[in-house]
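Pinned message: reference record for glutathione-specific gamma-glutamylcyclotransferase
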Amino acid sequence: MTLWVFGYGSLLWNPGFEVAEKVVATLPGYARSFCMWSIHHRGTETDPGLVLALDEDPAHACEGVALAVAAGREAETLTYLRERELISSAYIERELDIDLVDGRRVGALCYVINPDHVQYCGGMALEEQAQVIARATGGMGPNTEYLYNTASHLSEIGLHDPDLEWLNQRVRHLAT
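Predicted structure (tokens):
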């Protein structure tokens, strides 16, 4: 049985595991949002950055990619993803149904935000998000790099996210 992982942020451009198949996909009932304070990878506890998370919202659907884990690599991939994504308890690991662009529906591993966690910051205005992203840096590098790479890879695969596109332009202006 194939292990699928839904990528909507850094997994688009840095999955960190061997991918056997990559297909554009949609996760209904969730929105991609900079709704998680990053205190490890793209910010610090004293100067947090922002990272994307899947925020439950029945009125939305998140477009991203379904990543099929290479056969025989499932256990090591799960270990890797849990170390990477569950560094704090802000993300919750769930298996959710996603719709692939080719018509298939598959269960995929998804990392969704825990809205009760202290790192949750949903509802922040886009301008405030831009101000945070333009200045924050963490253990994995500048917050700008995370935004720029995500926006670029969404564009490369033909996916349109108006909020990310606005943030990409605004942060580039602020960071110059």
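Pinned by admin. Summary line: The first strand starts at residue 4 and ends at 7.
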